[in-house]
Amino acid sequence: MSSQAELDKVIRSEYEAGFTTLVESDTLPPGLSEDVIRFISAKKGEPEWLLEWRLEAYRKWREMPEPEWAHLHYPKVDYDAISYYSAPKSMEDRPKSLDEVDPELLDTYKKLGIPLHEQEMLAGVAVDAVFDSVSIGTTFKEKLGEAGVIFCSISEAVQEHPELVRKYLGSVVPKSDNFFAGLNSAVFTDGSFVYIPKGVRCPMELSTYFRINEANTGQFERTLIVADEGSYVSYLEGCTAPQRDENQLHAAVVELVALPGAEIKYSTVQNWYPGDENGKGGIYNFVTKRGVAHDNAKISWTQVETGSAITWKYPSVVLRGDNAVGEFYSVALTRHAQQADTGTKMIHLGKNTKSTIVSKGISAGKSSNAYRGLVRMGPRAENARNFTQCDSLLLGDRCGAHTFPYIESKHPSATVEHEATTSKVSDDQLFLCRQRGIDPEKAISMIVNGFCKEVFKELPMEFAVEAGKLLEVSLEGAVG
Amino acid sequence: MLEIRDLHAAVNGKAILKGLDLTVNPGEVHAIMGPNGSGKSTLANVLAGRDNYEITGGQAILDGHDLAELEPEERAQAGLFLAFQYPVEIPGVSNMEFLKAALEAVRKAQGKEEWDSVTLLRKAREACKQVNLDAQFLKRGVNEGFSGGEKKRNEIMQMLLMEPRLALLDETDSGLDIDALQTVARGVNSLRSPERGIVLVTHYQRLLDYIVPDHVHVLSDGRIIKSGGKELALELEQKGYGWLTGEEESA
Ligand SMILES: Nc1ncnc2c1ncn2[C@@H]1O[C@H](COP(=O)(O)OP(=O)(O)OP(=O)(O)O)[C@@H](O)[C@H]1O
Ligand SMILES: [Mg+2]
């Protein structure tokens, strides 16, 4: 399969860490304590201030109750049973070839049309020839460098750009913001960092995909994106192939800072393992995503969620400056026994701020899909406007959709509009498709795709196509 | 090509077709007329395989395929096309996307060459033109917000592209203005060919002025009670159905 030329490009992954080893072992026994946090921080060679920051987060977290209000049911997570640090898997521990990987996963990759070498990478196969993406990665770094864009792992940023990290880390999601964010602040291991300088339009879409070979960022990922005045960046999180992941609990934090006149577009396609028909296995995804938009800035979240056993996620925008704009476009598909409780918060603080929410929930099987949205108009939010549209589509009659809009308005001139619909894929629609020769699975996926159109058109082109394909694959067997 | 013998069918358990016989040979155009509720749409739906429309006796054979044994999409792939009396909307799915999926499935099953997107677009534009629909309709959601007449023309546009072996048109003429009626009739006539059968369900002689049928049948209470040539339609226009069904003609 791999030609000699490709093998010439062999790069051995080296996991010699850029820090001094203080403790012998590379994987911690389960459990969380201040010592564990000191260990993580030391392992990563972090400065004193960051260790203090983590410890403070930990102390506050211990006082916090775990939220119970989400429309979700799951067995309690035992936080003392988790190991909070394990060194990236060595090559020897990984599957040696695709033969050792779950065939069902491979089947899905195939349906998504993912090239073989990418399949290996996604499945975590120990490939030491790192194919094309190395060269892509390099040209890409050069191009970003010319524009002055910083795009690196957050650990690297702590070392190379401490002033930026220190200024903005926790500025959007304070370390004691909520239970999961608190836990993340205490123990986060890695994630991405982006800085776009003043007036710069980032010359390409930034994607975690390019960093996937460093993907062992664990279950407590931390992302920080800072767009300086008048700059623009589009960031794509995740990639559309289902990821193999042994971690049960994910508690990530994403912080976006859009300084005056800046624009950040953040797109996610998430499809972690959702668990089987009976709800066994799968990822618990508890994420805190929030952005602050200053004067005339714009933050736009677009997400397509098909994975995870449990999703608890409310990407939010704080419209701090005057004329700031916040957008949230979401498609959440649940099937089998999946549960999703997602939505957004738009906090209008500045004058003439404007937010748009379009949420599309699709439920199949015996899954449950809830939208929870908060729109708050602060006392200074003169002429602030929100428009919310919340549509649910049910496939079959064993699933459920719920909508929980919360509106708080402290300014009389603010306007809030809310529209909600629930529909089913009708027998008539299905029959029309089948009468034209289209098989029912394809028909359902086409109808569902149509239902999601308003959201898909917000995604970057290739992503939209893949998201469509992904829905198709996810819906297989959802008919009947 | 279509051979219906002593067909009995029930909708949600209620018997509607009660021993219907009909033979359509290649190249023929048949018109089916009959009072409201007599079972015309039921016949079309039974042939196309709609859920809850169950064949309880007899047979319908299309080119050697026993239709009862085929899924609806397989019947379509075998060349059966139904232009609906009430075409349904599919929001967000563009007409073009829909046509592409349909044509891919049907042409593949029929062993015809696949049309690339350029060819498809060209053919689709031509078909639109033929039924007097602006090409913009290809970009809109399937029937989404279309007027009644536009929906009907959209069905004919699809039919032109699908090149069916057997076309069933359920009251395609209802709700059309006079110009649209002629446009649709021209479209249907352009499909008339020695390889193709066409079955028109209609209430009005008017359509049959433009699409002249080879045979006219009267369906009443689930059975064909009279068949004749094109002149039968004229007679029905004058006399109504009462003289055939044995009921009093309503004033
Ligand atoms: N889903 C259903 N459940 C119960 N009865 C039904 C159903 N669909 C049709 N019917 C009945 O079957 C009979 C035949 O209906 P059908 O629609 O075939 O009539 P039609 O000849 O097409 O009438 P029209 O000229 O009004 O279109 C009617 O009495 C109708 O009420
Ligand atoms: Mg009818």
Commentary on this structure:
The complex is a heterodimer of chains A (480) and B (251). Chain A has 480 residues and is an alpha/beta fold. Chain A has 13 helices and 19 strands. In chain A, the strands form two sheets. In chain A, strands 1, 2, 4, 6, 7, 9, 11, 12, 14, 16 and 18 form an eleven-stranded mixed β-sheet that branches. An eight-stranded parallel β-sheet of chain A has the order 3-5-8-10-13-15-17-19. Chain A starts with a helix and ends in a 5-residue tail after the last helix. Chain B has one domain (2-245): Rossmann fold (3-Layer(aba) Sandwich), CATH 3.40.50.300. Chain B starts with a strand and ends in a 6-residue tail after the last helix. Chain B is globular, with a radius of gyration of 18 Å. Helices cover 37% and strands 28% of the residues of chain B. In chain B, the strands form three sheets. Chain B has a six-stranded mixed β-sheet, with helices on both faces. A four-stranded antiparallel β-sheet of chain B has the order 2-1-4-5. A two-stranded antiparallel sheet of chain B has the order 7-8. In chain B, helix 4 (117-130) packs across helix 5 and helix 5 (148-162) packs parallel to helix 6. Chain B has helices spanning 40-48, 72-77, 95-109, 117-130, 148-162, 178-191, 205-210, 230-239, 242-245, and strands at residues 2-11, 14-24, 29-33, 53-62, 65-66, 80-83, 90-94, 141-142, 166-170, 197-201, 215-220, 223-228. Chain B is of the alpha/beta class and 251 residues long. Chain B has nine helices and twelve strands. Adenosine-5'-triphosphate binds next to strand 2 and helix 1 of chain B.
